[in-house]
Amino acid sequence: MTNGVEWKIDKHSVAYDEAVRTMESRVAGIRAGTTRELVWLLEHPPIYTAGTSAQPEDLVASGNIPVVPTGRGGAYTYHGPGQRVAYVLLDLSHRGRDVRRHVDRLQDWLIRTLARFGVSAEFRAGRVGVWVVRRDGREDKIGAIGVRLRHWVSYHGASLNVNPDLSAYGGIIPCGIRDHGVTSLHELGIQVSMDEVDAALKDCFSESFENKPCPHLP
Fold first, then answer.
1. Which residues of 6-25 are buried (b: 16+ CB within 10 A; e: fewer)?
2. d(Cα 110, Cα 119) in Å, to the nearest integer?
3. Which of 49, 71, 120, 141 has its CA 20 to 30 A from that of 79?
């Protein structure tokens, strides 16, 4: 436990529909006051998920990867092995009923985590997620955000590309953004393990979520 928030790390791949059912049950418990808030770190088998703003033209070629609709915000994204998914289930009734601030803190969390590995990541106005600037000036996305709230309890959350199959992003327009690419820690030359990423995520969480200033945010 960290500051009353339970941490769960799954070492095996968790099916997406199973994860959603688990989150919805946990949200009900948090709302009722019978369970603690939760940060759940996991990986999914390869899957494209279509958020509430997904457009049909952004699904380019799904191939053998299944496509499922989901209630989180955002457009299409990819989940798969080598990507750390962080589901963040928090009661915003006690943390400020501000969805925008919650998204900002998720972004700040990923930025702080990446900084632990010497990666300078940034947010961009109008583009939810976390971005790195390449040497040629190109901006690539390394972390995605997609949230849903029920009775002011948050679920879904963030994903960070550690070492996924980046070619899988070719089947979609990730998050509906056509003019930028996608990268990962390993593609940037940062050969870290998932365990190291998990440790950094846990270390950086309180800095972003325990009502402290977020220096990366406006």
1. eeeeeeeebebeebbebbee
2. 11
3. 120
